[in-house]
Amino acid sequence: MDKQFGKILLTGATGLVGSRLLPRLVKAGYDCFALVRGKEVATGVTAVQGDLFDPETLQEAVKDAVAVIHLAAVFRSTDMDLIWKSNLEGTRNLIDAVKSNAPDARFIFASTSHVYDINSPHPGREDDALNPQHAYPASKVAAENELSESGLNWSVLRFPFVYGDGDGHLEELPKHVVAAKFHPAMRMSTIHHRDIYTAVIMALQGIMDRRVVNIADEAPTTLYELLQLVGETMTSSAEPLINPWYLHADASLARSLGFQPSIRTVYQAAQENLL
Q: Within 13 A of 26's CA, how many CA atoms are on the CB side?
């Protein structure tokens, strides 16, 4: 297939999201480059050696890019300094490189619905005031702010719980749910890897320009049901649910922009063997 659109640089290309997004972009004919540190990348992708902590290596990496998709992040780690360094300083270095070498490129930033207040009176909305207390979402908010003030053409996609394509993420959920002592009736927004691709394509086309957009499927699902899907039984409870909107993202803005998930629910994914 002929290359289209121009050079697209991805960070986090070998991670949970990137390793599933890249092959879809390549199949669609996009000219993909992956920022890597010696790792192999998917067929059809050009590897670019570089490090988010080494600004000099980023100069050549972003050169001639028409879009940068920034997925690289540190999430589950006890090293708070590493989380902040990776998610804020690494993003800042990449922003600076794009400003200097590809100022007209679209900068698409993957963020998280974890930024929303646990005590929110409604599903998390893009215009909510944010004050996350944990390092991962706090560092993401700080990076979002850096990007929105950069003068670049940016978009921020806030993803909820990501699953599918055999990534094992759903299978890991029970241990985190039990450790956090979550209520079984808590509903969590989800998104399949196929529809991360759907959203990214829209962002590449300019539909998300200079917007923060929640990306989620059509049916937040209870933790009780999600655990059942992977063969785990969660302790039942009829106690009142505190913080009923935590982990539930309002995706109405995405809908208004034309986003339609091809995998509308986790149950659809299960029925079609796409978990």
A: 17
pLDDT, tens only, 177-219: 989 999 999 999 999 999 999 999 999 999 999 999 999 999 9
Query: Has residue 60 been placed in a domain?
Result: yes
Three-state DSSP state, 94: helix
Q: Is residue 18 part of a domain?
A: yes
Domain total of the chain: 1
Q: How far, CA to CA in Å, does 112 sit from each of 123, 178, 212, 248?
A: 14, 21, 11, 11
Residue-range definition of the domain harbouring residue 73 = 4-163+190-217+251-262
Q: Does residue 26 lie in a domain region?
A: yes
pTM score, two decimals? Answer: 0.96
Which residues have CB under 8 Å from 3's CB, separation 6+? Answer: 29, 30, 31
In angstroms, rounded to a whole number, what is the distance separating the alpha carbons of residues 72 and 197?
Answer: 16
Q: What is the CATH number of the domain that holds 152?
A: 3.40.50.720
Question: Along the chain (275 residues), what's the average pLDDT of each consecutive run of 10 residues?
Answer: 77 95 96 89 90 96 97 92 97 98 98 96 97 95 98 98 97 93 96 98 98 98 97 94 96 98 98 97
